Amino acid sequence: MDMNSFSPMMPTSPLSMINQVKFEDEPDLKDLFITVDEPESHVTTIETFITYRIITKTSRGEFDSSEFEVRRRYQDFLWLKGKLEEAHPTLIIPPLPEKFIVKGMVERFNDDFIETRRKALHTFLNRIADHPTLTFNEDFKVFLTAQAWELSSHKKQGPGLLSRMGQTVRAVASSMRGVKNRPEEFMEMHNFIETFSQKINLIDKISQRIYKEEREYFDEMKEYGPIYILWSASEEELELVDTLKGVASCIDKCCKATEKRMSGLSEALLPVVHEYVLYSEMLMGVMKRRDQIQAELDSKVEALTYKKADIDLLTEEIGKLEDKVECANNALKADWERWKQNMQNDIKSAFTDMAEENIHYYEQ
Q1: Is 142 in contact with 156 (CB distance < 8 Å)?
Q2: Where does the chain have alpha helices with state H?
Q3: Is 240 helix (H, G, I), strand (E, B) or coil?
Q4: In this structure, which of 23, 77, 212, 329 has its CB flanked by the most CB atoms within 10 Å?
């Protein structure tokens, strides 16, 4: 794979460090640091929910202070994602973890689930912070700095229900018409996304299955080892006792090595693969929004062809829509290359780290 850029979110390993060498001489331009930690449970008469502490440190002049601390719940993250999509319809917004977990994985509000979500929310905010355009979004700044009542007030300032419904109706009408002449480069992009989605979903399922099988193997070994200790206690022949204890010790070592490998799977591989499953869904949405903008332009051009009245008004609308389509296309093209490079870095690094974990496992 082409390794032209280095994502700051990329997990490091001895092999992946090779790819960072050429970046050592470049200055560190990062000026926004975000941490998501300290999940806290809240119980009201209506609902139970978790809030997360968000600490932001920055040297940017547009912020009133250099450090902020706020608490946010999952709904607030959803609001931020929606505002980013609204403001930048053809930029690739980082995905949020799902609201509801897959049945059979873990219970909601279970410690493991909360920790997994915390890490995903941390990644979500830092990916926005590292994005050259999204990082300067005003709603993102409000999300990081406003107190709960200020955020609630800011949310109410958005467009009214009727305005949002009008936008939705227009978008649905455009998507129903479809795009007659999607540019070749976006056809290639669409085909790439479909193939990528199939492959990453398959990798996600296989990875989850491997983890489940490792977990079952680990649980059985934990019960298996002590049996040899009990057996050795009932034997009188010293040589047999030593042999049985040796087997128990061997199983214990295998148990610890398996636990370490499971930890590598759950921390290094599974989150990365699943994030890109969610990214593939996001990309489908981005392509659909781009097509809607173009479909709206196509419909106006078609109306101008068959309609003699209001030609001046239609011509003016077409001019504005042509600019809108051009901006949308350019934004998506620029973000697409950036996303592909980050994706290649992230997935290559995750696979490399997992390969190293497996080597260490079999050595042990």
Answers
A1: no
A2: 74-87, 111-130, 138-145, 148-155, 161-177, 184-233, 238-264, 270-306, 311-363
A3: helix
A4: 77
- Chain position carrying tokens 């620029």: 334
DSSP per residue, 294-308: HHHHHHHHHHHHH--
- Contact, 304 vs 315, CB < 8 A? yes
Q: Which two tokens stand for residue 308?
A: 């003699």
CB within 8 Å of 223: residues ≥ 6 apart: none
- Report the pLDDT value the prediction gives residue 316, as an integer from 0 to 100: 77
**CA 55 distance to own-chain centroid:** 20
Give the whole-angstrom CA distance, residue 336 versus residue 329.
10
**Residue 265, helix vs strand vs coil:** helix
Burial class of residue 39, CB neighbours in 10 A (0-12, 13-18, 19+): middle
Sheet of strand 32-43: strand arrangement: 32-43, 48-58, 67-73
Three-state SS at 347:
helix
Q: Which amino acid is at 54?
A: I
CA distance 37 to 230: 44
pLDDT digits 0-9 by tens, 94-152: 999 887 654 444 456 688 888 989 999 999 999 999 999 999 999 999 999 999 889 98
Q: CA 197 to CA 291: how far, in whole Å? A: 19
User: 222 Cβ partners below 8 Å, 6+ apart?
Assistant: 255
Is the dihedral angle over the CA atoms 119, 122, 126, 127 positive or is it negative? positive
Amino acid at 147: Q
Q: What is the residue type of 27?
A: P
Phi, psi for 54 (deg, rounded to 5): -120, 115
Paired tokens of 100:
């509801």
Phi-psi map region of 93: left, alpha, beta (phi>0 left; psi -120 to 50 alpha): beta
Specify the DSSP class assigned to residue 157: T
For 10, the 3-state DSSP assignment is coil
- pTM of structure: 0.79
Q: Phi first, then psi: what are they for 4, rounded to 5°?
A: -90, -20
User: DSSP of 189-219, one letter per residue?
Assistant: HHHHHHHHHHHHHHHHHHHHHHHHHHHHHHH
Contact 278, 346 (CB under 8 A): no
Pairwise CA distance, residues 359 & 116, whole Å = 26
